[in-house]
Amino acid sequence: MNNTVDSLDLRQRNDFVTSFIEVVDKEAAAVKQVSAVDPGAISRACELVMKCGGRVICTGMGKSGHIARKIAATLSSTGTPAHFVHPGEASHGDLGMIQPGDILLALSNSGETKELADLLTYAARRSIPMIAITKRADSALARHAQVVFLLPDMPEACSIHMAPTTSTTCSLVIGDALAVAVMRARGFQREDFLGFHPGGKLGAQLLTVEQLMHKGAELPVLAPSASMEEAIIEMTSKGFGIAAVVDRDNRLVAVVTDGDLRRNIRNILDKSVSEIVNYAPKSITPAALASEALGLMNALRVNALCVVGDSMELVGLIHLHDCLRAEVA
Fold first, then answer.
1. Residue 253's CB: how many other CB atoms inside 10 A?
2. Residues 284, 250: contact at Cβ < 8 Å?
3. Which of 80, 117, 325, 328 is 20 to 30 A from 291 (CA-CA)?
4. Domain map of the chain by residue range?
């Protein structure tokens, strides 16, 4: 095997492209067949996961093990406790990680992976239910399992039909579909997902306005009858460049901004707040995504938005800098 390529002619470049597209097409065709899986297997597998009082133990050897790790991670992040157990390590003490109440999700293309033998025996002795993902219905893995997802009977997409490609892609699709079906059945919502993803860009994208907004004594609030002197003092002390004008029931009726002050600077202290305010203020709800608030602020070219409840009552204020500090984009 020669890994050195000094130069590539046009034919070789075209061969790369052809090979690449062939693999994609082969795997796509195999994935399409996954939807023809036995509906009864889907229902039984989802029911097993839903009723599981412990964790879903995902396992597999080699490339199947890598897919099993990813399935465990997807299940865990969507409301189903799961973890990966390496078949080889299981035979040397890690079987103790599997307890009554757990279920086993085992991946093996052939269904005869020898490293799985101790796991299968352990699960059978302790009546631990098993879901299998395999190509062979007559394999040891399939015989031990309560539910079997049979992989499409299609060759691997590599040129020698041996490297796990088609089979691992289909296994991953089955795992994803199982996780999402159970996620939907549990009523798992965006807020639940955020609870498992507090860090990084994903967590920031799922933050809500309520999680970032200022409230209570931090809010710059004025009555419609307030003087301009009161408005300037309130806006300066709170430092948001905006003040909410509310009625007696704390409903938002208008806003006054630094821009309004500048535009009316001539004899400003002789004017009242009601003379310069914007009576059509844009606002947002607490449940909205912070990214939505940021988009609205950018579109309106403003630095802050009032946050209101169902009856337009003022409940908070979100500033552009709040979104930037939280790395919302």
1. 16
2. no
3. 80
4. 15-188, 209-325
The first and second tokens of residue 198, run together, are 């507090």
From the list 171, 135, 164, 173, the residue with the least C-alpha distance to 152 is: 135
Helix axes 166-186, 10-34, angle to 10 degrees: 40
Q: Which of 25-39, 134-148, 255-269 has the lowest mean pLDDT?
A: 255-269
The CA distances from residue 242 to 78, 209, 292, in Å, are 40, 17, 20
Q: In CATH, which superfamily holds the domain spanning 209-325?
A: CBS-domain (3.10.580.10)
Q: Which two tokens stand for residue 143?
A: 């015989």
Structure tokens at 281: 């203020």
The full length of the chain comes to: 329
**Which parts of the chain fold into alpha helices (H)?**
10-34, 39-51, 63-77, 87-90, 117-125, 140-144, 166-186, 190-196, 200-205, 209-212, 228-238, 258-263, 273-276, 290-300, 320-325
Joined together, the tokens standing for residue 102 give 């757990």
CATH class for the region spanning 15-188: alpha beta
- b/e for 206-225, b at 16 or more Cβ within 10 A? bbbbbebbbeeeebbbbeee
Q: Is the separation of the CB atoms in 218 and 239 below 8 Å?
A: no
Please report which confidence band the pLDDT of residue 191 belongs to, taking 50, 70 and 90 as the band edges: low
For β-strands 56-60 and 82-84, DSSP reports them as parallel
Work out the average pLDDT over 289-298.
92
**pTM exceeds 0.90, yes or no:** no
Full strand arrangement of the beta sheet holding 314-319 = 283-284, 304-308, 314-319
Rounded Cα–Cα distance for residues 115 and 97 (Å):
17
User: How, if at all, do strands 242-246 and 252-257 pair?
Assistant: antiparallel
